[in-house]
Design goal:
single chain; about 160 residues; mainly alpha; 2 domains; two-stranded antiparallel ribbon
Length: about 160
């Protein structure tokens, strides 16, 4: 029996995001729109797909669109940039150190129990095996303080 020749399914459905649009909402909302025609289209995409995109994000993290549209501020403004004393890069430039994204959520009162558990697990792992950690001792102390401010107690590492 002859088979019906099918065309590949390439048309964009109105209620679905393309992979590029999803990635833009997750990771790069602060640049000019590349996968949306306008900024208004990108905001509308976030509003329609917010729950789906939030579900795809690890606890303790938020999509780029969350910081831009839900809080309506850039992460650099939400996070308090701190300069480490003595930190040098290149020709004497100081390197800014940003608080962990979960610390920002705690400070703003937006951290969920899952966010707190994720940060506590990261601190515990980093203290248990410092050779595999990407955090400095100062980072860990700051994270512990943020957890304590949210009422999370941890055994001393």
């Amino acid at each position: 029996m002859p088979r019906k020749k099918r065309l590949p399914f390439v048309r964009k459905l109105r209620d679905q995001l393309t992979m590029g649009q999803a990635q833009e909402l997750l990771w790069s909302c602060f640049a000019e729109p590349r996968h949306f025609e306008t900024e208004a289209d990108r905001r509308r995409g976030w509003e329609q797909h917010r729950a789906e995109l939030m579900a795809r994000t690890r606890p303790g993290r938020r999509p780029s669109a969350y910081w831009k549209y839900d809080l309506e501020t850039y992460p650099a403004v939400v996070r308090e940039a701190r300069i480490l004393a003595g930190a040098k890069h290149g020709d004497g430039y100081k390197v800014p150190v940003y608080e962990h994204e979960t610390e920002t959520l705690i400070r703003l009162g937006l951290a969920s129990p899952a966010d707190l558990a994720e940060l506590a697990g990261e601190v515990a792992f980093s203290e248990r095996d410092p050779d595999l950690s990407r955090h400095t001792a100062e980072d860990l102390a700051r994270m512990r303080a943020a957890l304590a401010s949210a009422g999370v107690t941890m055994a001393e590492g």
